[in-house]
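Technical note accompanying the year-one report. For the benefit of new consortium partners, we illustrate the data format agreed upon in the data management plan: each record pairs a sequence with a structure-token string. No post-processing was applied to the example shown here.
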Amino acid sequence: MERQQMIQGLAALLGDSSNHPLPDFAGVKAARWRHLPLGGRLEGVARVDLPEMDELLGIEDSKAALDLNTRQFVAGFPANDALLWGGRGTGKSSLVKALLRRYADRGLRVVEIDPDGILDLPEILAALQAADPQQAYYFVLFCDDLSFGADDPGYKALKSLLDGGVEARPDNVLLYATSNRRHLMPRHFADNEEYHRHGEEIIPGETAEEKISLSERFGLWLGFYPFEQAMYLDICIIHLQRLGVRTPQAEWREEALRWALQRGSRSGRVARQFARHWAGSRA
């Protein structure tokens, strides 16, 4: 008996999900795919970070575009996979979670997968089909901070999911990914040597074409950029006001700029962190 229990425990650690219950998506809004050495399993997330859409400041165009795409999706209309790329702390991940808050009542569910789980995409789709055989929900596979090395095996697995695989993807599954890299893969100076000229046209080489081809399979590209100084300070004001601080800007402006300089970024995340620091230190 003890031996059987040991075997079952070891199998669970290595990725045998046969005895692991699937999430009940009527009761949970999000799940994560836990990648394990011999497979993986789908686990419900009881407590989900769901920011308000109005808390995401300075990214109005991207908010509107992804909101429209998601609204189409949960209405049963065609929609696109989305790549959200740009600097750190600019609201990419928070936007996806805010959309879950907005559309969870219409059947939207988010399944978080880490880059290691990209190789498990067929198993993830099978688990979702088993958990939702009636296709009552709309699933966004959410991969945060996605990027690939030159020989990363997940690269081809993702290309197959997005476009080109033999197995058709269910209509109720989309992929939203965030990345600091526009094309998801590193660009090297040597890639430029492959470009050649044909008349007035510049033709990229095979290496550059291969690197661009993955990101082009996302139907929606959204760029997120660091804020200019004036925008950063305006967002600091809004976050301070939400914390009940009405101090004149002249009293905290220089410290807010130093705060951003120390972190090497002017972003919504940095502005929110400064506001919390300022409000808390003067409470």
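Partners are asked to follow this layout when depositing records. The CA atoms of residues 119 and 157 lie 6 Å apart.
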